[in-house]
Design brief:
One of its GO terms (molecular function) is ubiquitin ligase activator activity. By secondary structure, this protein is α+β, with helices and mostly antiparallel strands. The protein contains 7 helices and 28 strands. Among the domains are: 122 residues, no CATH class; 103 residues, Methylamine Dehydrogenase, Chain H, CATH 2.130.10.10. It has a 4-stranded antiparallel sheet with strand order 1-28-27-26, with no helix packed on it. Strands 2-3-4-5 form a 4-stranded antiparallel sheet, with no helix packed on it. It has a 4-stranded antiparallel sheet with strand order 6-7-8-9, with no helix packed on it. Strand 7 and strand 8 form a beta hairpin. The N and C termini lie far apart (110 Å).
Length: 505
């Protein structure tokens, strides 16, 4: 009797012919009743559902509860209360689960036509194929996801961060140039310095025997000068810090000084005996490097402009740059040497280099001073060297060196990031951005089809212009500052300006 009572209670708990609320099935049953079609529990031959009141084979199915009236069948309580807790299964697909469980134990095999019809019914009723749903199925091999399937949650929680949110680890650098300009007849000469960008946002470009100015704000192009003799050409250009005067070196050993506002030549300074391939300003002193290996200092304020001669190279001076604080002048030559010159003369009255670096195995044209470490210098060697080296000019030590695997033509430091960019020739003709001081490669900028001759940077340090032997100028927005940091920097600069004005008053 105890055994019968237990089975009766178990049957009352698991009895599945009592309908369990299910919104899709309820709608389907109402629709079937209105149309006269058989419902899920009907005996129609085309019904995809099996009878839901079967128990596993071998179990006894008592029809009546012992000790009770024969006409009353015990069922699962429908209201809260009673002697046991029954969870609310209204949100579960219990009918579907029961169908799949009973189908597993059904030895009958349906015909292909019947299976297709059942699949169509399941899709129409439930919105998915019950075979693929795998509701409460604990056996069988896992099925592969259909082609093109994408888990929305997986996409949401596993996608990579956008460039804006990953600025702590990196930043977005456009791989394509922002603008491309033609530079016809630009001289394909490694030793010349043919472009420079002024603080007033004018780009000076030397094209054979002429100099053109491009107003980067308005887009206006100005033809500044043309050499009188057709065999002469412009070999170097350099802007003064204020941006209102341009120094021009020529192949006939002249250094010309031009006023940009008036577009007029102010003076013509002659002291060299060969072409002037490099120029660099230090306040009112313009230094010029010639093919003979000599460097001359010119004081543009006085009539006798030639005030000093530096003799430390045996071949052409192709790289020349004053440090930002004006204390040192770095020169690189075709003799593979790098010399560091002081701003003032020695006790004997002669200039002598305070440091001479001999590690490069090729011509040194690329020389650039670090903007945040005044005693740090970057240099790059030519085709037979291909190395970028970082120097401490005070101690004379080489801080680091990296093989660039190609000719180094130019180097520029970024003031917005702890990075610098290098322009290269044979074989890839690319620009490379390097992280400092790790000397790891950040990215490469490709597009030129011939070697990069020179690099120059915009006044806001966000854009780099590259001139190449493919007769094009390309503008790369590779150092654009984060808008938030840019706003903070402008605010700090305006605060400093206001403090100065208050002090003057």
């Amino acid at each position: 009797m105890a055994h019968l009572v237990f089975e009766a209670d178990l049957h009352g708990l698991l009895k599945l012919d009592t309908p369990i609320p299910n919104a899709p099935l309820a709608r389907w049953q109402r629709k079937a009743k209105e149309s006269g079609a058989p419902g899920p529990g009907a005996e129609a031959g085309l019904s995809p559902m099996k009878p839901a009141n079967r128990l596993p084979s071998g179990s006894k199915t008592p029809g009546r509860t012992p000790g009770k009236s024969g006409s009353k069948i015990q069922s699962t309580p429908t209201k809260a209360g009673g002697d046991r807790y029954i969870p609310n299964r209204s949100t579960m697909q219990m009918d579907m689960a029961n169908f799949l469980l009973t189908k597993e134990n059904d030895p009958a095999e349906d015909s292909p036509t019947k299976k297709e019809q059942q699949k169509a019914w399941a899709v129409n009723l439930n919105g998915f194929d019950v075979e693929e749903a795998k509701i409460l199925r604990l056996s069988g091999k896992p099925q592969n996801a259909p082609e093109g399937y994408q888990n929305n949650l997986k996409v949401l929680y596993s996608q990579k961060t956008t460039p804006t949110s990953s600025r702590k680890n990196g930043r977005y650098i456009p791989s394509m140039p922002d603008r491309i300009l033609d530079a016809p007849e630009i001289r394909n000469d490694y030793y010349l310095n043919l472009i420079d960008w002024s603080s007033q946002n004018f780009l000076a470009v030397a094209l054979d025997n002429s100099v053109y100015l491009w107003n980067c704000t308005s887009g206006e192009i100005i033809h500044l000068l043309q050499m009188e003799h057709p065999d002469d050409y412009v070999s170097s250009v350099s802007w003064v810090k204020e941006g209102n005067y341009l120094a021009v070196g020529t192949s006939n050993a002249e250094v010309q000084l031009w006023d940009i506002q008036q577009q007029k030549r102010l003076r013509n300074m002659v002291s060299h005996s060969s072409r002037v391939g490099s120029l660099s300003w230090n306040n009112y002193i313009i230094s010029s490097g010639a093919r003979t290996g000599h460097i001359h200092h010119h004081d543009v304020r006085v009539a006798e402009h030639h005030v000093a001669t530096l003799s430390g190279h045996t071949q052409e001076v192709c790289g020349l740059k004053w440090s930002l604080d004006g204390r040192y002048l770095a020169s690189g030559g075709n003799d593979n040497l790098v010399n560091i010159w002081p701003a003032t003369q020695g006790d004997s009255g002669d200039y002598a280099p305070v440091q001479t670096f001999t590690q490069h195995q090729g011509a040194v044209k690329a020389v650039a001073w670090c903007p945040w470490q005044s005693n740090v210098l970057a240099t790059g060697g030519g085709t037979s060297d291909r190395h970028i080296r970082i120097w401490n000019v005070c101690s004379g030590t080489c801080l680091s060196a990296v093989d660039a695997h190609s000719q180094v033509c130019s180097i520029l430091w970024s003031t917005n990031y702890k990075e610098f960019i290098s322009g290269h020739g044979f074989v890839q003709n690319q620009l490379v951005i390097w992280k400092y001081p790790t000397m790891t490669k950040v990215t490469e900028l490709r597009g030129h089809t011939a070697r990069v001759l020179n690099l120059t940077m915009s006044p806001d340090s966000s854009t780099v212009a590259s001139a190449a032997a493919d007769e094009t100028l390309r503008f790369w927005r590779c150092f654009e500052m984060d808008p938030i940091k840019k706003k903070e920097k402008e605010k700090a600069n305006s605060a400093k300006t206001s403090i100065i004005h208050q002090g003057i008053r």
